[in-house]
Hints:
It is a single chain. The protein is 73% helix and 5% strand. The chain has helices spanning 3-49, 54-58, 63-99, 105-135, 139-145; strands at 159-162, 167-170. A two-stranded antiparallel sheet has the order 1-2. Helix 3 (63-99) runs antiparallel to helix 4 (105-135). The protein is elongated, with a radius of gyration of 30 Å. It starts with a helix and ends with a strand.
Amino acid sequence: xxxxxxAIILGIALAISVGINLFAATAAxxxxxxxxxIERELQTRRDGERRPSARELLATLEPETRRxxxxxxxxxxxxxxxxxxxxxxxxxxxxxxxxxxxxxxxxVDALLATSRQAELRGRERLETDALAVLATLDPExxxxxxxxxxxxxxxxxxxxADPRSGxxxxxxxx
Length: 174
């Protein structure tokens, strides 16, 4: 083979190889930086949608007001606890009944209804007591604490029962 022809072929192969490598490197950098941007945007959205926990909300109150509100909300939680425990228990029994042979749909349905009713009683107690607390606050503090009526936060102690172990387990992301 002619050395000049060999040099031309090798030069073309080198140029093609450099072009392919540059394309691959550019694609990799673009993909990685794009992924970081997407992850950052998703995190920003999640942070924006997250309701602050009760602890975070109450941290902005004056110390004396914060103590009184915490005490009242703790007492409300303790009053509602039996209802939530009954709801968890009925739901765990419903899961076990659904696994049993023969399947008794009426029993499972009744247990789930009992669970829902107990949960509603507990929520009603909490909300009624929260309204009583809100009624005692001045308008600025009420603005802050009213966010507890928005429902559960996505962090902190948002938990549900694990029917397999009978213990509390973190709630999975939806």
